[in-house]
What we know:
Order of helices and strands: HEEEHEEEEE
Strand order of the largest sheet: 3-2-5-8
Number of strands: 8
Helix content: 10-25%
Largest sheet: 4 strands, antiparallel
Structural class: alpha+beta
Strand content: 25-35%
Radius of gyration: 23 Å
Amino acid sequence: MKKIQSNIFAIALVLPLLSSCIYDELPECVRVLDYVLTVKVVDMTDGSDITGSGSVTGVSLYFFDGQGNFIGSESMDKNQVAGRKPVSFRLGGEGTVRVYAWGNLSDNVAVSGMNAGDPSSASFLTLKLNDEGYNMCPQDLFFGSRSINAVYT
């Protein structure tokens, strides 16, 4: 019985080595980077921070890789923005990621549907038309973008 227990213990010690991955040389080994992003809303007329004022009722974040291909999106509601709650997102490898943020997208604005891999040139916003054929007036729109350099340390 002691020999069986020692064999099981030896196998349990070796199993993690069999499932490991060497990141330096093997392209099959995918490393993942987790990021946390906090949105800050600034009034461009005077540079004041209006994040907590409630002026922004929601933010849509769009992520594009270094080649300009769509990776994914995240949304934040008014409480998350005003409360400066961070948004987490995951990247599948090193490189540059461009984040575009649109604030106060309402029912008066149509956003193009994006699928993973779509080029950024395929993304757009349009104003919807009312019953008379005129563009509907959106509330105050906010926009910002940021590049993130994803590097393993």
